[in-house]
Amino acid sequence: MTREVLGVAKTNLFSKIKDFIRSDAFIFLFPAIILIIVFFFIPIVVSVYMSFTPLKNWNIARYIHEFVGFENYWRFFYMVTHDPTVRPIFITTIVFILVTLAINVLGGLGLAIATFFMGEREAGSTQLLWLLPRMTPIAVYSMIWYYFFHGSAIGTLNSILMSLGIIHKPIDWGQSIIPWGPWLIIIFVNGLVGVSYGMIVFTSAISNIPKELVIAARVDGASNWSITKNILIPLLKWHIVYVTTWQMLSLLTTYDHIFLLVEWGLVNRYYGTTWALYIYNMAFTAAEKDLGLAAAAGVILVIVGAILGLLALKILGFDKMVKEPRGDI
Amino acid sequence: MTYYRALSKTAGIVIAIIIIIGIAAGAYYYLSQKPTTTTKLITFVPLTGDFNKDIINVGKALEHDGIKTVQLSVWSGGDPNSIMRIYGIVEAAYRINNIWKQNNINVEIKVSTRYVSNPNDVYEDYINKWSLGQAPDIMANGYTYIASLASEGYILDLTPYLNNYTSFLNQFYPTLINAMKWNGKIYGIPQDTEARPLYIRKDVAACAGLNLAGLADKIKNGQFTWSDLYKWALKVKESGCAPWGLIHRKGSAHPDLIQFIYAFGGKLYDEKTGKLVFDKAAVYKWFVVEKTFADHGLLPHDMMSWDWAKQIHPTVVDGKTLAFIGGTWHWFEWQTKAYYTDPKTGQQRPLTAEEVHKYFYYTLFPSGIKGKPGLTLSQPFAWMINSKAGEQNPDYDKLKDLYHELVFLVVVKASDPDIIAIHSLISGHLPVTKTAAELIKNQTWVNELKNLKIKLAPEVLNNIKNIIEKTVNPLNVQFLANVTYMLEYTTFTPKHPQYPKLASLFAEALDQVLRDKMTPAQAVNFIVEKINADPDLKKSVEIVGEIPQNWTFP
Question: Quick check: do B51-194+381-416 and B198-377+490-544 share a fold?
Fold first, then answer.
C-alpha cells in the first residue's frame, strides 16, 4: 500500500517536472535557471563543501581533500560567543539594516513618484544626480565622505559649521558621538547608494501604469497626493515587496564602503562595523586567509539571509499577491 | 522549405583553408617552443658559487636543451621611489643576457614587471594566483610574508642554493639573513631594509632651549629615555614653540609603535615555542606613555585616525611638533611630495634636501628603561622565488631544476652592490650588504649616478632617471651613511601568520586608550579577551607577565 502511494507520488513528481520542462514557462525561465545554477547554486554547494575543509591561502590542491567536520562552524560560534565586541556589532547591524532599508525603499519610492510629476528634462537630471553615488567607484565615493565627515578641521562639514560660527572646534562625528555618530555616517553613505536602485525599479514600474488612469483622475480633479495614494502606490505593491526584500538581503551582506570608513578611522570600529564586515575581518585579517572559516560564516549568512527573506515576503503579504485570481475581476 | 541558404562551395573552401592554416600555425608555434634537440636534456647544473661560471653553465645548458628565450616575471609594491624592487630584476636579466652574448650563448631572458602602491595587494594576488600558475616567478615583498608563503610551499627553499654561495650570503648583514629564515631554512634574499628614526625638529628644540648636542649618543647608551622625551615635549608645549610634542603614524598593524614593546623590555615572539608573545607589562607601559602624552595635550587624542597627507606630514614638516616617530624613507618623501606650506608664498611644496637637513635631527627610538640602549625596527623586503618559477617556459616538468637555478642566479645578480646602492639612494631604504654601503660612500660613483653616467639597461635608466635627479645629492647620501649604524640596534616584528591579527588588536586598543574610552589596564585586558575569543590566536599566543601595580610614568 505504502509502496503504491510512494509510486504514485513519484510518478506525480516526475510527471510534474516533465510537464514543467515542456511548458512555455520553462522556456522563459531557462536563461534565469541557468544563471541561478551557475552563479548561485554551484557556488553555494562549493561554499558548503569548503566549510568542511581546512582550506586556507587558496591552496586548493593541498587542503581540498582534508575533512575537518564541523570544526569551522565550531570556531565561528566560539568567536562569536566569546568576542567582547560582538554586542555593539550586532546592534549596529540591526539598526543599519532597518534604517538604511527604510531610506532606500521610501527614498527610492519618493524619488520615482516625484520625478513622475516633473517635466521630462528635470526628471532625467534628477535621476542622473541620484545615480551618481552608484556610478562612482567605491573607493572614490568613500573618500568623498571620508573627507566630508572627517573629525578634524580638514573635514568639509566641520569647516562649514566652523566658518558659520555654529561650532567653535571640530567634532569627531564618527568617533566621539557614540553610537549615533558612526551609525549616521554609515547609514547616510550606504543610504545614498541604495536609493538609486529603488528609484530605477519604481520609475520603470510607474512608466508601465496605464496613462489613462492618471489622466482620468486628473480630469476628475485629483491632486498629486491623491493620485499617488490611490493609483501609484497600490499598483507598485509588487515592486515595493521586491525592492524591500532585495535591499534587505543586500544590506545584510554589504561591507565594502563600511570597510573603508572603518579602516581609515572615520567611524568607531565597533559601532561602525556590521555583521558582514565582522565576518570578513574574522577570516581575512591574518596573513593566513582562512577560507574554511569564511565559507562556514558565509553559509550561516546565506541561511540567515534566506530566513529573513522568507520572513519579509510573509510580512509583506507575498502569498496573497500570488494567489490565483478569483475570477470576478 | 528552408530559410537558410547553404554556404557556397567557394565560401566553404575558404573557411576550410582558414581552419587548416590556423591549426598548422598553432602546431608550428607549439613545436617551435619545444626543444628541437634529440639528445638528452640537461636538467641540472651543479652550482659552484662562482657566479660567472654558474650563469654561463646554466646558459649553455638551456641552449643545449633548445631554449632560446626564458620568460620571467617580477612583482612588487611600495612607494614610487622604490621601483628598483622590480627594475633590479630587469637590470640583472640585462646583465646576464650580456654575459651570455659575450660567451656566444644564444639564450635571452625577458622580464615582465608589475608594480603597485600597496605591497600587501601583491601578496594577496600572489596567493590567489599561485594555484592557477599565474603568480610571478620572483616577488619582492616584506619578510613577514615568508612564514605563510613557505608553510604553503608557495616559495622556494633557497638553503640548498645558498650552501654553494656562502661568500655571497656573507655580504649581507647577519640579522637580515636571520629575518629571511623560517623553520631554520632560508626562503628569501634581503632586498632592502630601513630604520625607523625618531625625528626631532631642530628649530622647535632650539626655541624651547633644548640642547640636541650628543642626544643620539645618550639615546644609544640609554641615558635619555621616554621619560626625558616627555619632559622635553612638555617644555616645548609650555613655551608655545609647537602645539604638539609627539606625532606618529596612524592606523593598524604599523610596526613603528611596536618599538615601545621592545623599549620596555618586552618581546613579541618566543623562539623556543614558535609562539607569539603578548607581554602584558610591556604593552601596559606603552599605553601609559602614550596616554600621558595625550592627556597633557602633547599627542592628539585622535592620532590613530589622522590623515597622512593632510595632517601627519604637514604637521611634521611645518614644525608643529617636537618629535615624530617615522622612517628613513620619510627623509626622501618630504623632498618629493608637497607637504610643506611655504610661509612666503602660502603654497604647498616639497622641502629641499637642504631644508630637511636644516630642520630634522634623527636618532634611535629611545628606551623606556634607564641604561637600556635605544633601538629601531626594520621590516626588510626580500626577493622570494616562486616554487614553480619558470613554469611558463617550455619543458618545465623536465627542466624545472634548471629554471630554478636560473631564477636564483638572477636574484643573486640583482643583489649586485650598485643595484642595491641605487635603490637605497633613490628610495631612502638602507643597503642590505656591506659592499653596497661602502659604494654609497664613494663620491665618484655617486656623482656618476647623479649625472646618469652609469651603465644600466636602457629600460631601467629611463624609468629611474627622474627619481635620481630629485633624490641623489650629497645631503641624502650623508643621511643614509649616518643612519646605517641603526641596523646594529634593530629589532623585527615576528614572521608568524597570526601576527597581523595581534598587531591590529594593539592598534584597536591603543586607539581606545588615546580617546579615553579605555584605561591602559582595561585595554590590556581587552586584548587578552580578544586573543581568547579567537581559537587560532589563542593557540598561537602566549600571554606573559602581569600589569604592574606600582609603575608610574614619567
Answer: yes
Backbone phi and psi for residue B207, each to the nearest 5 degrees, phi listed first: -60, -40
Of A82, A266, A290, the CB nearest to B305: A266
Mutate to test the interface with A, among B302, B303, B313, B530 (most CBs of A within 10 A): B302
CB pairs under 8 A between A and B: 90
The domain B51-194+381-416: what is its CATH number? 3.40.190.10
CATH of domain A86-285: 1.10.3720.10
Closest CA to B256 of B356, B335, B365: B365
CATH tag for B198-377+490-544 (out of 3.40.640.10, 3.40.190.10, 3.90.1030.10, 3.40.1800.10) = 3.40.190.10
Across the interface, do B307 and A150 touch by the CB < 8 Å criterion?
yes
Q: pLDDT tens digits, residue range B323-335?
A: 999 999 899 889 8
Q: What angle do CA B533, B534, B538 make, to 5 degrees?
A: 95
Tell me whether residues B311 and A154 touch, CB distance under 8 A: yes
Of B152, B304, B529, the CB nearest to A59: B152
Provide the grid cell at B127: 596567493
**Is the ipTM above a cut-off of 0.90?**
no
Cα distance between residue B481 and residue B472, in whole Å: 13
Which of A249, A251, A240, A250 is closest to A201 using CA atoms? A240
Cβ pair A287:B128 closer than 8 A: no
DSSP structure class, residue A89: H
Domain ranges across chain B: 51-194+381-416, 198-377+490-544
Would the CA dihedral through B172, B199, B505, A267 be positive or negative? Answer: negative
How does pLDDT run across B425-478, given as a tens digit for each residue? Answer: 999 899 999 899 899 989 899 999 999 999 999 999 999 998 898 889 889 999
pTM for the whole structure: 0.81
Task: Give how far the C-alpha of residue B165 lies from the chain's centroid of Cα atoms, to the nearest Å.
Answer: 23
Chain A residues within 8 A (CB-CB) of chain B?
56-62, 75, 78-79, 82-85, 150-152, 154, 172, 175-176, 263-266, 269, 282, 285-290
Nearest CA in chain A to B500: A286
